[in-house]
């Protein structure tokens, strides 16, 4: 391109510039049909990044690509006469070129070519999870704190983040909910990254995702199979039946974590017994523990989460305490 080429005649067709953007989260070469059409019809295809992941696939498909970083003026000159120039954007999106084109258009001194932004590949839902995995890989390798963490060392953070998520849900704070979901997701990805380093039994985040996908499909035969479910109770019955087949448990209490909060534990045991059709009276005993157990069983039978109910009451109690503090300060 010659920056000193003669000025085009006013009647000349100013042509067309196509800025082709691609997602690094999609395998190279998987471009949309409009993108391939634009590439095949282009008079010139330019790319400033000689290491762009798409270049080998474009050349293999018979599309010649020039490794060049033209200025806005050079691009405009190259389009004169009705020519089409496709610019394969780098990861930064070619801000210098687009800013230069915007300045030329704003000057009113240049007849501008038609400008088109053409996304050649799109992120699929969940694509940013790939970024999270990549970021976690780097942090695990380079961060002095993260590189030394273990499953046991991180366990307390998983519990804390889960409680903070529950609090965000109960408070109805949407911004906080989004953030806390991210914190919980981080714990999953962090543990999976650590698990990759186990010398005998390694597994990755893909193994974790693959396992839960298989479980969900198996436990939803009314969605992925031939069974039917018309009510939530039908769905729950499918879930419990397939879960029992998978686990082959000798007791309905197996799999109930005893380390969870007491009210939640009591309600879970009551739910397992009720679902199994077992009529088990609450043990008779003295003391607050047995009283709380009885309340938890009654709440579960009534469809009330005793843990959530107690937290709601505790928040009211907290507000009352704050009000009393404010009165005391007057």
From TrEMBL:
InterPro entries: 4pyrrol_Methylase_sf, MazG-like_dom, NTP-PPase_MazG-like_N, NTP_PyrPHydrolase_MazG
GO function terms (MF aspect): nucleoside triphosphate diphosphatase activity
UniProt xrefs under SUPFAM superfamilies: all-alpha NTP pyrophosphatases, Tetrapyrrole methylase
Alphabetical keyword list: Hydrolase
The keyword Metal-binding is assigned to this record: no
Domain NTP pyrophosphohydrolase MazG-like: 149-224
KW RNA-binding (keyword) present: no
Superkingdom field: Bacteria
Entry-linked Pfam families: MazG (PF03819)
E.C. numbers: 3.6.1.9
CDD domains, per the entry: NTP-PPase_MazG_Nterm
Protein name listed in UniProt: Nucleoside triphosphate pyrophosphohydrolase
Source species: Streptomyces heliomycini
């Amino acid at each position: 391109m010659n920056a000193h080429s003669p000025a085009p005649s006013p009647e000349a067709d100013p042509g067309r510039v196509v800025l082709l953007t691609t997602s690094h989260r999609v395998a190279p070469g998987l471009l949309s049909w409009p993108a391939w059409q634009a590439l095949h019809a282009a008079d010139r295809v330019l790319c400033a990044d000689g290491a762009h992941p798409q270049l080998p696939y474009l050349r293999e498909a018979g599309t010649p690509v020039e490794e060049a970083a033209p200025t806005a003026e050079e691009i405009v000159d190259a389009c004169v006469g009705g020519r089409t120039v496709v610019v394969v954007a780098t990861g930064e999106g070619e801000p210098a070129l687009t800013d230069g084109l915007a300045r030329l258009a704003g000057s009113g001194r240049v007849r501008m070519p038609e400008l088109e932004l053409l996304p050649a590949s799109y992120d699929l839902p969940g694509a940013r999870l790939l970024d999270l995995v990549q970021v976690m890989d780097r942090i695990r390798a380079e961060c002095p704190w993260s590189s030394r963490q273990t499953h046991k060392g991180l366990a307390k953070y998983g519990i804390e983040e889960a409680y903070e998520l529950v609090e965000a849900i109960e408070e109805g704070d949407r911004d906080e909910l989004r953030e806390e979901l991210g914190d919980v997701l981080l714990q999953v990805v962090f543990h999976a990254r650590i698990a990759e380093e186990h010398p005998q039994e390694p597994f990755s985040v893909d193994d974790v995702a693959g396992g839960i996908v298989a479980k969900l499909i198996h436990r939803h035969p009314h969605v992925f199979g031939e069974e039917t479910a018309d009510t939530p109770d039908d769905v729950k019955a499918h879930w419990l039946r397939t879960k029992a087949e998978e686990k082959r448990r000798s007791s309905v209490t197996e799999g109930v974590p005893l380390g969870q909060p007491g009210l939640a534990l009591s309600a879970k045991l009551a739910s397992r017994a009720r679902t199994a059709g077992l009529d088990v009276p609450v043990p008779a005993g003295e003391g607050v523990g047995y009283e709380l157990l009885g309340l938890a069983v009654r709440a579960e039978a009534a469809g009330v989460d005793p843990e959530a109910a107690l937290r709601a009451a505790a928040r009211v109690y907290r507000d009352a305490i704050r009000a009393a503090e404010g009165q005391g300060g007057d």
